[in-house]
## 1
Amino acid sequence: MEASKADDSTVLNSLFSQSPQGLFVFDAELRVVRYNPSGRGVRHLPADEVIGHQVEEFAPGFRSPEFKDLARRVLATGEPLRCHLLRGPSPSEPGRTLAVELSLFRLNGAQGDILGLVGVVEDVTERQAAADRLAVLSNVHRAVGATLDECSTAEDLVEALVPEFADAATVHLLEAVADGSAPRPAPLQADTPLRRVAFAPGSAQPDGPELGAARPFPFPTPFTQVLNDLRARVLSLSGDTPWLKTDPGQFAPLVEEGVHSMIVAPLTVRDALLGLLTLHRTTRPDPFDEADLDLVQQAALAASAHLGNACTYRREHTIATTLQRRLQPEPSPTLSAVETANVYLPESAGGDWFDVIPLSGARVALVVGDVAGHGIDAAATMGQLRIALRTLALQDLETDELFTHLDEVAAIVADRSAGGDDHVATCAIAVYDPVSRLCTFVRAGHPTPVVLDPDGAPVTVDVPDGPRLGKGGGRAYTPASVQLAPGSLVALYTNGLMATREDDTVAPRHRLEELLAPTGRPLDELTDTAVYTLAPSREDDAVLLLARTRALPPENVTVWTLPSEDSVVATARRLVAQQLTVWNLSEASFDSELIVSELVTNAIRYGEGPIRLRLILDQGRLLSEVTDAGSAAPYVRRARESDEGGRGLHIVMHLSSRWGVRHSRQGKTIWSEQRLDGRA
């Protein structure tokens, strides 16, 4: 029995003198009765400062309230506590933070009375620091890169690092990069301006200008050195650190805030510099070390990739938006056929577009289209299709024939882009004639236009949905026509306008009809109301084109039907002269009579059936039209000096500001436009 006691005593003495783990025996009042003086944290402490004292007395600040709660729970329940993580400042190593795993076991007497506790403390500082670094890096990877906005990405980075790893963090981007330019390779000049784009926490900003402000860092400092060699640095700071004196005013807050350790790391993409990441430690006593520097470099590398993507996206978005805006039409001209207003929101730099195209006969074409995709390619495709459509429309093609040709153009564009999409674009067109008040619609995979009468009631127009543009092959499109009363409202739009809210039980198209029902309100007010109420998606472009129809006054339009005989040429000249006298335009009579006589002569010689002569007076223009049942288009040929004829269309070209041929299913119309204000 005595030998057994001696063996137990030897074992206990060896444990308390040689064990690398901290061993503590506490009485029922949680005072230390015996401990291992070689344990981490109490090493080098005098024994009389530990024996007989509670933990908070020799290890102040080491989360003593939590320790007390845990210890009392073990005393009360008898249930052991195993490997509970605690952190706090080291009692024997000032400026050092310890991480320990605490295990507690209750000591019971022979009679079942509670004697105290045994505590086993294992130093896991290095292991926990490595785990903490991995957690911080994992947090960076998880938090950064959720958006394509460089400021949001920078904010996500600093928030992922503070306060778990650093007490403060700042991201500066090169001013040129923040403004949309491509990053430049190092070395950069010391006076390169940088813009502060993110800081955490928001309560203090110790190392530079306010958020959004840009200026160069003083030289020479660690910041300018990193700009030069792209090498991350760990820095220790004190009041007499030399580089702080380069600009005491700027760097004084570093000392005032108690910054004692810093890391300055470059943010780079493919050896080109985006900016700088700066980390501070103030309240945390441990300085940054080489392991921390390695972590920061990995975090900076991961964040730089996302920042680079965000900057590239913004740069391309800016280019695409600029290109898209430049390719949109000029402000809509003042027309007698319609009053127009539009709203164009290029939120995603996609390929939405609209156009208002004046046509012959005082008609107008209203166009809205939507190219698939986003970015520079979509904007360039949009420009090609808009110009192609305008060119085809100015050829006075029928709307369905126009879309067939536009589909062929879109197929060529698709082949060049090799994007592999099922379609290139959708489009809708409305051609309105203010003389007949007939409006003809065609659409290619595009939303059906909204049409309201002057009282705001919806007008049903069943516009067949033709195939989307981009396949070619001569596909057919079917038009739909409706006669509109003056003051009717036509609305063409893209899908981006129709962002459906979760609480919205009304179909977007019907809601748009309701918003536009007060057709007498100014069109600009209606477009604003539509935007405010429909709340278009920020993820897609949106276009709304409104047109309020008008009718030409009957007294400004005159029509005659003439037989196809040579003798009617003189009759046509006389009728024109008489009508111009009624309109007080006798000074234009000579040119107009000559134009009409040539057009009528051409119709008699090369056309078929009776001839219809129409004069339209419209906004300082005189429009002369001759229609016959023939389909053969006239062409201009160069007459020889010996030829007696062949100069008619040359005369028309010379006397007209514009002229052309408009085909229909009933024949063709040759038209001429004269400016009455003297301009060509």
## 2
Amino acid sequence: MSATTTNVPASQGVSAKPVITSEADVLALSPVIPVVVVDDVAQAVPLAQALLRGGIRVIELTLRSEAGLGAIEAVASEVEGIVVGAGTVVRPEQVQQVVDAGAQFIVTPGSPPKLLESALASGLPLLAGAGTLTEMLTLAEAGLEVQKFFPAVASGGRDYLTSVAGPCPQLRFCPTGGITPDTAVDWLGLPNVGCVGGSWITPKDAVAQGDWARIESLAAAAAALRG
């Protein structure tokens, strides 16, 4: 059962989208970046509004479904106050597609040369994926000292990032992959972590059922992780 789309009233204090010009700006938006998959473009706007009501002002809409591009365009054009990122960008040609759709930043799970070149050329902030120290240093050579650590748990977890901080104290991360509400606080406690990515804020069943109240509640709990 789908819920009716409702606009977030101005009286709730939601202002225009924050201006972001760098990867560090993205990390500062929220302790948790919701990593979202929608199967229907019509789900995107009410979902983003629920996140806003819960205090989350950023959303990573992934290209894991055919609705991904349309969802980015809908939220970018219809929802004031939320920063829209394009996630699961895996091919160079997708970069221009998400730019045209209105994405304000790009997230990649990995960083092969052609994809990295296209994403950097877009001029948008880029959270490029890295899972090893060599990949992290390669991205740093390209000027990216803020990165996505993915898949976070499978790539060594918090212990790995703690070890990375020794030789590379300048690097900061958004770990994503395997992080839960119960472990997010520990990740956020690491000095080289600016935020985490997580899908638990927008559970698949809640999205399918249009349970925006549940998503709002989960967003509020996530927003409170940064005191």
